[in-house]
Design a protein that fits this description.
Order of helices and strands: HEHEHEEEEEHEHEEEE
Shape: globular
Distance between the termini: 39 Å
């Protein structure tokens, strides 16, 4: 048999020793889009989302203005969407290219700051998606609180939020994607609680290029802390990136993922 014909047959049929080619990965993205972003910065943030074409998108600090602009520009591209905008920092949304079978807003105990979870159908599989925003480091609980006192209180609160989230999903069997603005680095208490519960960090996957996510593109200040994260349980990650563009005070994070089995 001629060599060119062998090459063609090998391409079409594969050899008996070949392993199956992996399916195309799915794409996840998390983005705190800034509650007081002006219209021109909203459009810059939408530019990033449109360019990256995520399968799953977690939006935090989602305002009515951003939600309206999102639906107008990307509603057809990401049609399976639950947006719960609010003035201020409590707005949340999950947008998907794939059907959602369920969505629920819930308080991130012991605080009322809302999280949003949804079940998404991806390639015949069900994926749980959890979009969160843990307490900001400098948020005041009392007018009399100083910055250091606020930071200590909020670090303790994030630890409790992290443990409460892991209790919420302790018995969950389906794969989970956990993403959002955690307001802390990987070595802090909530992130350690996630790791202890079996969640792996997307930036630990191969070919990743991560790093600080705040401040973001809307300031001339250098980005100094990594507080926006994508994690998963029952998933494998690759090519995670901090995207150095947009119109927010946070940079978005994007990653590719597969189901483990």
């Amino acid at each position: 048999m001629h060599a060119p014909l062998l090459v063609v047959l090998h391409f079409l049929l594969g050899s008996s020793g070949d392993t199956p080619r992996p399916s195309k990965p799915f794409t996840a993205m998390t983005y705190n889009v800034l509650y007081d972003a002006p219209a021109e910065d909203i459009e810059k943030s939408l530019d990033v989302i449109e360019r990256e074409k995520p399968d799953i998108l977690c939006l935090r600090e989602l305002t009515p203005a951003f939600a309206t602009a999102f639906r107008k520009r990307l509603g057809k591209e990401l049609p399976h969407t639950v947006l719960m905008p609010r003035k201020g920092t409590w707005g949340v949304g999950i947008a998907s290219r794939h059907p959602l079978s369920r969505a629920e807003r819930f308080p991130e105990k012991p605080h009322r700051l809302p999280g949003l979870e949804a079940d998404v159908r991806l390639g015949g599989r069900e994926l749980g998606v959890v979009c969160v925003h843990l307490m900001a480091a400098g948020a005041k609980h009392k007018k009399s609180d100083g910055l250091l006192e606020s930071m200590e209180k909020n670090a303790e609160l994030r630890e409790k939020q992290g443990k409460a989230l892991m209790e919420r999903y302790a018995d969950e069997k389906k794969p989970l994607l956990l993403l959002g603005d955690m307001n802390e680095g990987r070595q802090a208490a909530a992130m350690k609680a996630f790791a202890a519960a079996g969640f792996i960090h997307s930036c630990d996957g191969p070919d990743s290029s991560c790093g600080p996510t705040w401040p973001g593109a809307n300031t001339a200040l250098p980005s100094v802390v990594e507080i926006d994260h994508i994690l998963g349980r029952g998933l494998t990650f690759s090519e995670a990136r901090v995207l150095r563009s947009g119109g927010s005070d946070h940079y978005p994070v994007r990653t590719f993922f597969h189901f483990e089995k």
